[in-house]
Automatic annotation (TrEMBL):
<feature type="transmembrane region" description="Helical">
    <location>
        <begin position="273"/>
        <end position="297"/>
    </location>
</feature>
<comment type="function">
    <text>May be involved in iron transport and iron homeostasis.</text>
</comment>
<keyword id="KW-1133">Transmembrane helix</keyword>
<feature type="transmembrane region" description="Helical">
    <location>
        <begin position="160"/>
        <end position="186"/>
    </location>
</feature>
<feature type="transmembrane region" description="Helical">
    <location>
        <begin position="434"/>
        <end position="455"/>
    </location>
</feature>
<keyword id="KW-0812">Transmembrane</keyword>
<feature type="transmembrane region" description="Helical">
    <location>
        <begin position="134"/>
        <end position="154"/>
    </location>
</feature>
<comment type="similarity">
    <text>Belongs to the ferroportin (FP) (TC 2.A.100) family. SLC40A subfamily.</text>
</comment>
<keyword id="KW-0813">Transport</keyword>
<protein>
    <recommendedName>
        <fullName>Solute carrier family 40 member</fullName>
    </recommendedName>
</protein>
<feature type="transmembrane region" description="Helical">
    <location>
        <begin position="93"/>
        <end position="113"/>
    </location>
</feature>
<feature type="transmembrane region" description="Helical">
    <location>
        <begin position="244"/>
        <end position="261"/>
    </location>
</feature>
<feature type="transmembrane region" description="Helical">
    <location>
        <begin position="309"/>
        <end position="330"/>
    </location>
</feature>
<feature type="transmembrane region" description="Helical">
    <location>
        <begin position="20"/>
        <end position="43"/>
    </location>
</feature>
<dbReference type="GO" id="GO:0016020">
    <property type="term" value="C:membrane"/>
</dbReference>
<keyword id="KW-0406">Ion transport</keyword>
<dbReference type="GO" id="GO:0005381">
    <property type="term" value="F:iron ion transmembrane transporter activity"/>
</dbReference>
Length: 490
């Protein structure tokens, strides 16, 4: 609910532009870039249950506090506006900072559960694929329910009541999540033990590849220093030694996009006359399409292999998003090729003539926004197939004791792309220039597809989605099933 509503609340705080949503996104990205690798190293060194509980506690607490600040700012809105401008800015920054802290804790939770716990629980690569798909379906199902509930509350009650509901929900659900995590931990003995660096080197010394030796050296360097810089540098160095680096970079390119249901696109759609209730419904439909992708993914992977599944996923996403490109020039689109905004005023340049408008006349046609939303919704099918493919590769091809660091860096690179998106939004904040953001987003998704093709070529010898496939997960299968018998690995 929070991820859906935070963008709308920031638009509510500054109705003139997407400035606050862009600043929030940019600040969140910078924080995740800086702290991604250190958070991952902390996860690698910390007891699994303690790390999960700590991340969960911080995430829910920060969300509840942030929602409470929004309640107070909404309730005393008139009084705050009568005061000096600095008080209004302080309110905005308080909301943004608390939301960013919640994002950092949320990133830690995702790495702990989605990148480490699920691999330990899985019996083999086949089982891991189905568990990943099931976990994603749970996430997407929550994306169906949460936007509908939040959108209806915002539309038919008030923003204040919705913020109160979110704060209470996070505090109550935290205890339920605590119980479920503890139960899972104690019912799975393997989670209580993490592989030590020394044991792994001793057990696999005879069969270590050059890549693994480099990883061992990096781990030894990192163990000798606990400072932030060492964790940051060594984590990034380790990441670029991985075989799946191009697949990971391809996934990261998918984050440089406004063609999703994030705060930027929600704010844009809201400016085009789409209500919060309708936005919630569209998000829910997108989640359903994504669920269909998660249902197809494990079955397609079993039939054609994981690399080819990723190729199909990227292709389907690109194909569907061509509708978004078309929407830029459809009736109802506010796109203007020569347009710029200065501060909170609308400033338009046409044929070297500047005209300041008090109001922007809106085209009553909804063709453009409908086509844009259709492209975004249908692309969720290929998006989640590509996402599941790359994430499973990151789970399988990275040794257990490096999962936190590598996936922390992956999260940082994702945020680099996300930050680039918000920089572009800050540069082009008006809805008349949103078409440029759509075009650039589509280009980056195509680049992501190309980078994944490079990985596929390295693993299979060609990039054709047809022909004999190569299963690159055999090493992972051995890691998941024969960890106690390293002599059996060939």
């Amino acid at each position: 609910m929070w991820s859906f509503s935070v963008g709308l609340y920031l638009v509510m705080l500054d109705k003139s532009s997407l400035r606050l949503t862009a600043i929030y996104g940019l600040t969140s990205c910078i924080s995740l870039i800086i702290f991604g690798a250190p958070i991952g190293r902390w996860i690698d060194r910390t007891n699994r249950l303690h790390a999960a509980r700590t991340a969960l506690l911080l995430q829910n607490t920060f969300v509840a506090i942030c929602a409470s600040v929004l309640v107070l700012s909404s309730y005393y809105e008139d009084r705050i506006k009568k005061m000096e401008a600095i008080y209004e800015e302080l309110t905005h920054w308080a909301v943004i900072c608390l939301a960013v802290l919640a994002d950092l804790a949320s990133a830690a939770s995702r790495i702990i559960i989605g990148k480490d716990w699920i691999v330990v629980i899985s019996k083999n690569s086949h089982h891991l694929a189905y568990m990943n798909a099931m976990a994603r379906r749970i996430d997407l199902t929550s994306l169906i329910c949460a936007p509908i509930i939040t959108g209806q509350l915002m539309t038919y009650t008030s923003m204040v009541i919705t913020a109160i509901f979110i704060a209470v929900w996070n505090l109550v659900s935290m205890f339920v999540e605590f119980f479920l995590i503890s139960k899972l931990y104690y019912s799975t003995p393997a989670l209580a033990t993490k592989k030590s660096f020394k044991k792994r080197v001793a057990s696999f010394a005879s069969s270590l590849s050059r890549n693994a030796v480099v990883q061992a050296q990096i781990r030894a360097e990192d163990d000798n220093s606990s400072n932030l810089f060492a964790s940051f540098f060594n984590g990034w160095k380790l990441y670029f030694q991985q075989n799946v680096v191009f697949a990971g970079l391809g996934l990261a390119c998918l984050y440089m996009t406004v063609l999703g249901f994030d705060s930027i696109t929600q704010g844009y759609a809201n400016q085009q006359g789409v209500s919060a209730a309708v936005l919630g419904g569209i998000s829910a439909v997108g989640a359903v399409v994504g669920i269909l992708g998660t249902l197809v993914y494990p079955r397609l992977r079993d039939r054609i292999g994981i690399e080819r599944t990723g190729l199909y996923g990227f292709f389907m996403e690109v194909a569907c998003l061509t509708l978004c490109i078309v929407s830029v020039w459809m009736p109802g689109s506010p796109f203007e090729a020569v347009y710029w905004c200065y501060d909170k005023k609308t400033f338009e340049m046409q044929n070297s003539t500047s005209v300041i408008k008090e109001e922007i006349k809106k085209d009553e046609s909804y063709t453009s926004i409908a086509l844009l939303m259709t492209g975004i919704v249908t692309a969720r099918f290929g998006l989640w197939m590509a996402d599941l493919t790359v994430n499973q590769l990151l789970q399988e091809e990275v040794a257990e004791e490096y999962r936190g660091a590598v996936n922390g860096v992956q999260n940082s690179i994702n945020m680099v792309m996300n930050m680039l998106k918000f920089i572009l939004v800050v540069s082009f904040p008006c809805h008349q220039t949103f078409g440029y953001l759509i075009i650039v987003s589509f280009a980056f998704i195509c680049i992501g597809w190309f980078l994944y093709c490079i990985y596929s070529y390295k693993m299979r010898g060609h990039i054709s989605p047809f022909g004999k496939h190569h299963f690159s997960t055999s090493e992972t299968e051995r890691r998941l099933t024969d960890n106690d018998n390293p002599e059996q690995q060939t």
